[in-house]
Design brief:
Helix content is 64%, strand content 7%. The chain contains seven helices and three strands. By secondary structure, it is mainly alpha-helical. It has two domains: 115 residues, Arc Repressor Mutant, subunit A (Orthogonal Bundle); 32 residues.
């Protein structure tokens, strides 16, 4: 089977796995995984409550329910490292966390540029638009099925 004959599901899963592997290579020596990077990125905008962090990250978790305990509060989490602090239920970056976030952001930017090499901004935008339409089609079909309408 040629690459052109492989279904979209193959390419989506393959790309997802490659992105995860690249993030590990990009951030691994900083001691960060992709989930921790996502938390740092959310906190780089402003202090956030646990609920706000969970809401921001929900789309990136397979079941839509972020589990922040290990990445944020665990023994190797961002709080234990001194990269994030909290006051009540509000988390924010520390100065050290902000420095590490800036380093990680540079590397993530390089990874994004690598991922998009050979694509015009218009091609990327159209790819995202196409995937969004496909997702919307399936979301609507699943919603109809859940409502008992199989059409």
């Amino acid at each position: 089977m040629s690459d052109a004959d492989k279904p979209i599901g193959y390419w989506l899963k393959h790309l997802h796995n490659l992105i995860e592997e690249q993030f590990d290579a990009t951030l691994g020596d900083l001691g960060l995984d992709r989930r921790q990077w996502q938390i740092l990125n959310v906190l780089s905008g402003a202090a956030r409550s646990r609920g706000e962090i969970e809401q921001a990250l929900a789309p990136f978790w397979p079941d839509g329910v972020p589990r922040l305990e290990a990445a944020l509060d665990g023994a190797d989490g961002l709080v234990a490292r001194g990269w994030a602090g909290y006051d009540g239920d509000t988390f924010s970056l520390t100065e050290e966390g902000a420095r590490h976030t800036a380093t990680a952001a540079e590397r993530v930017g390089e990874t994004r540029r690598l991922l998009l090499r050979g694509l015009t901004p218009e091609q990327y935008a159209e790819t995202v638009r196409t995937l969004s339409v496909m997702a919307g089609n399936l979301e609507a079909a699943l919603a109809r099925r859940a409502d008992g309408k199989h059409h």
